[in-house]
Design a protein that fits this description.
The complex is a heterodimer of chains A (265) and B (787). Chain A is α+β, with helices and mostly antiparallel strands. Chain A folds into three domains: 45 residues, Uridine Diphospho-n-acetylenolpyruvylglucosamine Reductase, domain 2 (2-Layer Sandwich), CATH 3.30.43; 106 residues, Uridine Diphospho-n-acetylenolpyruvylglucosamine Reductase, domain 3 (2-Layer Sandwich); 95 residues, Enolase-like, domain 1, CATH 3.30.390.50. Chain A contains eleven helices and 14 strands. Chain A starts with a strand and ends with a helix. Chain B folds into three domains: 186 residues, Aldehyde Oxidoreductase, domain 3 (Alpha-Beta Complex), CATH 3.90.1170; 318 residues, Aldehyde Oxidoreductase, domain 4; 147 residues, Aldehyde Oxidoreductase, domain 4, CATH 3.30.365. Chain B has a seven-stranded mixed beta sheet with strand order 3-5-1-12-9-10-11. Chain B is globular. Classes of the chains: A alpha+beta (265), B alpha+beta (787). At the A-B interface, helix 11 of A face helix 4 and helix 19 of B. Bound molecules: flavin-adenine dinucleotide. The site of flavin-adenine dinucleotide has 31 residues of chain A, from strand 2, helix 2, helix 6 and helix 7.
Amino acid sequence: MYQFNFHKADNLSTAVELFNAFDEPMYIAGGHTLIPTMKQRLSAPSDVIDLAKIPDLDAITLAGDTLQIGAMATHAKVAASSLVQGHCSALATLAEGIGDRQVRHRGTIGGSLANNDPAADYPAAVLGLGAQIVTDRRTITADTFFKAMFETTLEPDEIIQTIHFPQVDQAVYLKFPNPASRYAMVGVMLTRTAGEARIAITGAAASVFRAAAFEEALTADFSLPAIDAVTLPAETLNADMHASAEYRAHLCKVLIKRGVNALSS
Amino acid sequence: MSGSLIGKSVLRKEDHRFVSGKGRYTDDIQLVGLTYAAFVRSPYARADIKSFDVSDALAAPGVIAVLTGEEVAKDGLGGLPCGWMIHSKDGSEMRQPHHPVLAADRVNYLGEPVALVIADTQLEAKNAAELVMVDFEPLTAVVNPATASQAETLYEAVPNNLCYEWELGDEAATEAGLAAAAHVTTLKLTNNRLIPNAIEPRAALAEYNSGTDEIILHTTSQNPHLVRLIMTAFVQIAPEHKLRVIAPDVGGGFGSKIFIYSEETALAWAAKKLGLTIKWTADRSESFLTDAHGRDHVSEAQLALSADGEFLALKVKTVANMGAYLSTFASAVPTYLYGTLLAGQYRTPAIYVEVDSVFTNTAPVDAYRGAGRPEATYLVERIVEKAAAEMGLDPAELRRRNFIGRDQFPYQTPVALEYDTGDYEASLHKALKMADYNTFSARQAEAEARGKLRGIGLSCYIEACGLAPSQVAGALGAGVGLWESGEVRVNPTGSVTVLTGSHSHGQGHETTFAQLVADRLGLPIEDVEVVHGDTGKLDFGLGTYGSRSLAVGGSALSVAADKVVEKGRKIAAHLLRTDVDNIDFDAPVFKMIDSNESKTFQEIAFAAYVNHDYPSEELEPGLAEKAFYDPLNFTYPAGTHICEVEIDPDTGVVEIIQFVAVDDFGTIINPMIVEGQVHGGLAQGIGQALLEQAVYDDTGQLITGSYMDYCMPRADNFPDFKVGMTCTPCTHNPVGAKGCGEAGAIGSPPAVMNAITQALGGIEIDMPATSEKVWRAVQTMPALKTA
Ligand SMILES: Cc1cc2nc3c(=O)[nH]c(=O)nc-3n(C[C@H](O)[C@H](O)[C@H](O)COP(=O)(O)OP(=O)(O)OC[C@H]3O[C@@H](n4cnc5c(N)ncnc54)[C@H](O)[C@@H]3O)c2cc1C
């Protein structure tokens, strides 16, 4: 790790001010992505600005039909929240399946989304559930938030404040973990709202994406035969020592089928 | 009281220290004036070094010195040697490229150290290490062992990159067996390369006292005396008596801390050269890159059988990857620790094995938990199971037909070893019962009804432990005898300090050895303290590896304890004014046979040091005895492991449903510790079968350089292990123990892979059985095609 200066922000505007005052600033939330990369000297911020002391940034509330999760809510907090469990148990299950106990008690939903790791779990939830990302300056829809591998449409100094999850009728998250890292080798969030199926897939490609062909088929007919002939083209998928693109494509379909079964029973 | 402690699951004496954070590992040691080192490493698998420029690094804040491979060469340091000479078929000696402490003109693997930066803080050292400018000119790397002998030559003195072409056994008899066979089973396999992953990374702290001219090196070693011997006699950083090596608490080794590495050597050299106290602790990335890796074989084998399944001959051809340099014991692993084990538990009359060891631009490969024996067991037990399937025989029955019978010991195998004792039928029988082997088909049918594939696999392993009878080892090329030293030092108040050349880095010696000596002397275990890991305190010792500690080190203590009793009898005879033959030791009391007079152990201990009326010509004061125990033979732990798996054909995921290990370790001192060793070994063996693999790309970059890609097994990868024991005590050592540290890692991989192969209807895949490999195999199965 290189040397850096550490700052604690009391509110969002100070955080942004601090950010703009330095050469190579970085926000830190749970630090469970940032600190490992700093330790490996892959990341070298001059100034690290801690968001942890900003009041209420980790709050979880229900506003009408919308579940609002503060960016600083840890995975453990989301998993244990009765509000989350009541609103969308698939989201609680997803949070419970991230990393290990230590990671879940430090890592945050905001950090995970800002980071947009291609194998992270939360992007599938946000995209699959059609959530909205509320920042210190605007609201971004899930469909436009994730840009590319480790890239989002956030401005450099923009801070995620809350994530708004609308009510869906049904949702299920299925994760096939990479055996080594236990990040998602493939993760599928399958939801249904008023008959419309929505599927977000993480882990399989450079960034989370929606499986349009499957969505269409399942919206028309929510059954296994409906997707029998539907496949995911392997060409755009990731290949590494753990799984070829072809195998990833196959796993996506297996998980979608399991999701359909789970939501049909 | 004697006999009351052997076989008891006494809680580990060392655990209080470890679980309360009072362990003292190398990195915990703080000394006045401490400085820190960071290494500059090669970013290429193979490159020429054109020049070094250290000026920026030297000018960086806090930097005290920068030493490069050029200084190492200038100081005339010797290379890091390999301690075991292997001869090729044609009688020529193995080829050993110079292994520099720091490379000066050519690097041969990714991460090879080329320079060392010393600074006031670790941060400054690491920062400055990035400023050392090394002009590398990259060269094409040779990575694949299977084709290395046809690739570009890496070292002038090593034609075809061949370290040696070794053979063992009777080729003609083996060919005859193959010719006469009713059936020949052939098998090709790779034994996947592994990275050891001790929980504590390697570390060293070197201090130099210019007043005494002594270097003290604290380091993560399994055998501190060997460190001292090699650094002084071979690398020549100091005279042997001016280097003290201390291996304090060490957090695991699995073999990787046997070897003498560049970093620790460079630190000791630099400490003296610069008059500094210097610490270095590897980070996890450095461990992945530079701890000696394990396994990495490619093999082909043929097993000849008669019509009724009798093994007639086994022929094996193996290519073993040595990596870029010969590590300390590397040459012995795929030869004398491998070829000699190919008889397994069977009477196979003719065996012939050829091993070509090759150099590649990868980290050095050396002994890793099991060292050669897992590779042998994997090959033998895979081919036996395959033969059973091909001949339509029950694999348990085929093994039974070929077992060396319990009445056939001692048994001379065709590959050099003489097994002293064993009962293979007994462990097989017990394991089959524990695994409910007979009702497997019902479970298989039930799984099939759920759309799952079940398989059950056996592995009847044997290993040679207790390295080693020095005469045998010497005849086979070992550079040192492989006995062990021990001392039982009775203190005046009757407590005992036990000194051993073995080294505990997780094995629990402080308990087991205390138990052994306390039992022999009739003392409470609390009164016995075990001291190990310090060349300044102990006699020369050989250390811990090859499951040798209890069988060899424990035997030395047993002999030393007997000597203490003998001396005690003499003292008692003197005190009781009688003849020594009239004294009996009924632990812990020395009794006069023809009277009811006696002396307690404590009285004798006290008298040994405080009396002033000894007949000094016949009896010296003091009560401390040593032994250097040289075993008469290897020990031969053996047993049966059974694995039952279930495969999800949709995803290829393998779940271990049950794992049964029945082992014969001879006499057991502490069953709890032994069971723990079995569990750890199984985790590593099953880890090898399902999860672990070191992968380099074609340019020699390590893809599995972190836990993101190198898959370490976790507790939830395993079911509760079912562990059972049988016992045929070792016939030639006084403890009766055979060794238990590696058996789990040796026996389990073929059990897992045999189970998977059976579930896949005979389709063979290589370890690790990743879900994708299994899924692809399922796609080629005739009956069960899935989504
Ligand atoms: C061992 C391990 C296992 C893991 N396993 C998984 C897994 O299975 N699945 C998974 O999804 N993740 C996994 N993770 C990642 C973990 O969930 C991370 O904690 C998370 O991705 C990042 O959250 P953080 O709060 O730690 O962010 P930090 O590391 O603090 O920050 C990450 C990035 O986000 C930025 N950032 C943080 N908060 C905000 C904000 N509110 N607004 C704008 N930018 C912000 C930071 O500047 C930084 O660039 C694992 C991590 C570890 C160490």
